[in-house]
């Protein structure tokens, strides 16, 4: 049975109408015109949406071929792009396609409600594949006072297959053996005694490193250290962090789930729709329940994320971001099928289903006010790391963090700890808040998820398992830059003539970073860590901007305000 379409849906993704949804009667309209003129069905702001023409274009439904649609460009000044491809005259579109009006102009998504099963979203071509799921780099909304976690879902990176690496290892081993025999002969002639002593070591263990490190420019300064010197002194102190977490019910330790509602479609099929609850006027949260009590739902959890940290004590304390060490204190990354959702509101007869659907919004799990359909009292829910592993640069051994992280109540900073038999060399810390100024050179170190992976192949020495091991190892990226601006948050209880609603951050001109850099150190020209890399924001028509938390918030977690004068 074919799906009966009821309405056209226009979801505005960027521009002055961002996050708004417009719907139009499917039977009534065969065309949806869009532009800045008042005569258009989809009208854009005549002053602020300057990239849009007065009669920019239209979406057309083919009356002779059901479920066939096209977008038509009315010779607009800046053109139309469908999924980032320029439209010449007209182009076929499908529900789910993104349409941009002019390069850098507003973007909206064309859809149908309900969307017919036979119309699947077209496959998008990705610029570059990356593996794993780097930590959400808490991107920032254009308003400037919130962190934006849309960067969160990194595409899977296509790595080298195990068999491919094994064949490369065999070939390399044969070539190395021939070269080694010649080298041994020369060494025996020149240094026969020394060569004999080391003869048994050759061939005992062979490692292949496959890497494509980004080229980092070395910029020398008149005073202080170069980025190359800073990296050389701190590479072994900057660590790679992998983590996952779940939300639990503290009285019993049960996992907490987001409840879904089975909804019967017109064609008889059943679709599970996420449920939400209005806790107060304008305040919405996901409807939560215990795993054993939720018939259909999904866990409030995350896995496969990564970030950066740096050693701050010989005993194994590592500083990083709060959204790395305790991610439940930051915006939750809802699954794709969580929106639109069903909303429960308090009515005269109790909780009722609202006709308004819930669109995408931001929610911090640790700040939840309701559990089920009742307000919470006391500490009922808690986040719990399912794993948090630390790996040193170019090392395949993972070290699990011990105990609970120390988390800042003021900023995006936390400290975790690993136990090692040896003492560690910490990064030098310096509270530079009083002397920092725009334009000062800095160096950022970390593990951006977009950077090519590095693999190590090792032959096993275990008689019970002779299979070669192919292991991905972290390889730190060094990025020089400058302080772009100093943002000051308003102090509690104090009036300020100048402050940023965004908060207390150092704005950086460091663009060669990305998701996974979160929690990495920001060094001054003397090699002291003065900040913790935290977030970024970017737009199609603007330069990417990154931000760091002043190190003073990390020093507070260590019980002191200053380490290096």
Care to give the gist of this entry?
With 565 residues, this protein is mostly beta strands.
What does this structure look like?
Pfam families: FHA, Trypsin_2. The chain crosses the membrane at residues 179-198. This is FHA domain-containing protein. By secondary structure, the chain is mainly beta. The chain has 3 domains: 7-119, Tumour Suppressor Smad4, CATH 2.60.200.20; 238-392, no CATH class; 425-558, Thrombin, subunit H. The chain is 10% helix and 35% strand. It is built from 5 helices and 38 strands. Strand 37 and strand 38 (545-550) form a beta hairpin.
Write the layout of secondary structure elements.
Layout: E1 7-12, E2 21-25, E3 31-35, E4 42-43, E5 57-61, E6 69-73, E7 80-82, E8 85-86, E9 90-93, E10 98-101, E11 107-113, E12 139-140, E13 147-148, H1 162-190, H2 192-198, E14 207-210, H3 227-234, E15 238-249, E16 256-264, E17 270-280, E18 283-286, E19 288-290, E20 297-299, E21 301-311, E22 317-320, H4 322-325, E23 342-347, E24 350-353, E25 370-371, E26 374-375, E27 381-391, E28 399-400, E29 406-407, E30 414-417, E31 441-446, E32 454-458, E33 469-473, E34 477-487, E35 505-509, E36 521-523, E37 529-537, E38 545-550, H5 552-557
Parallel strand pairs: 3-4, 17-23
Antiparallel strand pairs: 1-2, 1-11, 3-5, 5-6, 6-9, 7-8, 7-10, 10-11, 12-13, 14-32, 15-21, 15-27, 16-17, 16-19, 16-20, 17-18, 21-22, 22-30, 23-24, 25-26, 27-28, 29-30, 31-34, 31-36, 32-33, 34-35, 35-38, 36-37, 37-38
Helix pairs in contact: 1-2
